[in-house]
Amino acid sequence: MNKHTQLEDYIKAHPSQIGKVVDYNPKTDRLYQFDFTVSNTELQPEDVNDTEKFSAWVSVKLEQNRARYGIGGYMEHRTLYARSEHFNTHDEPRRLHLGVDIWAEAGTLVYAPLDGHIHSFADNDNFGDYGPTIILSHNLNGLQLYTLYGHLSRQDLIGLAVGAPVNMGQLFAHFGNQKENGHWPPHLHFQLMFDMENCHGDYPGVVRFSEKDKYLQNIPDPNLILQFPDVR
To answer: Which CATH number is 3-226 given?
Structure first.
């Protein structure tokens, strides 16, 4: 049995052991799915390159759609990463997004969806990068899973210790503001990994499109944990 199937089976068999990542009530809260591919002609490069304008655009879209959160991004081929040299490698730029983004205001609460431990953390302080990042380690009946939380508040890193336990439902982080989160509109990058590949405090969240098949083996769909409805 492959790891993807193991994870799906674990989640189906243990629904009470899967918690929330953000406060979300499917009965009352609306979600808006953002599209950051080339198909989005409404968002212009000059808007994406200006963090203030980009943040205002995101806020307006959420308000217009009466949405508590914006979501999207798993295996999405995004054009917006041209805003940062961090993703513009010489041979092939990185444009394939591996996680799910949850867009909301700075300070939004982040919870641990599973019991586990702190694997690592870092402040990846580059323009367009994660900013403050926390990675948790989980053992699901022998299946090793890691969850990554990027674009957090810098205060969330204070007092952390590698190996410290984290309980399902524990509030442990907050969405960072654009001055500390890598200069993005406030949001959470949430990602799952089976293998950290010797990374600590960081793991690629955007890769070359030619590497998609490789990363699909290691990066399951975060919505297995989030369990957001399909809003397409």
So the answer is: 2.70.70.10
